[in-house]
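note to self — DONT lose this again. spent like an hour looking for the file last time. sequence + predicted structure for the chain T wanted, 259 res
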Amino acid sequence: MVRLSICTITLNEEHNLPRLLRSVEGLAEEIVVVDSGSSDRTVEIARAAGARVLGRTWTNYGEQKNFAASQANEDWILFLDADEEASEELRASLQDWKSKDPQFCVYEMARMAWFLGGWIRHSRWYPDYQRRLYDRRKAQFSGVIHETVKFEGPIGRLRGDLLHYTARSMAELLQKQEEYSAVAARAMFDKGVRRWRAAKWFATPWTWIQYFVLGAGFLDGYRGLVIAKLAAQTVWLKYAKLGALIQQNTIETPHSQSG
């Protein structure tokens, strides 16, 4: 039997965390929650479910997740986000995996999103394979945003879906859009990206085409249309904010004086 630690990171997740914890009950030897300063009942809910709760000031997604994994008692880590849930099929797949010797150091699973009252099966949102089960001795998260598990070698795949509850309202979605575009703009700026005007005008409509047409978003009905629109808006905001950072930096950087 493979011993397993389930890890998650939280910040004010009292509405999501109970669902996640119920879905993984009995699957692992322990649950580790790393909280970055919740002001709601997140910590209380986690402890009541038997999770070990640790506090850590927020830095970025990759570092936060790697810290959580480093604090686990077991080397095999299943990392789940607070707004996710293991489906029954995925639970069964994980239980079967635990009963055998692992063949890979990293496993992935499909993720399906619940959006505006329905499950999204197209729009570039599904199957959206996530690498979440891994041996921390051979893999770790990398990246400030869109963090992913880095490793060498082949990858395994588990049956069943990881269910993702994206947002409870459009207001919450728009807030996430603002936050993501700001983080993405800063990440591009820090990497030295300085071309943004053309990208803003050309990447925005191309993103809409990728999601709604090439990604078969039209098969998701009006939800697919909303997803494509939000994706395009996010790209526009990302490059607009990058441009603002570049212009601000140009103003603040003193020009060199000649002679």
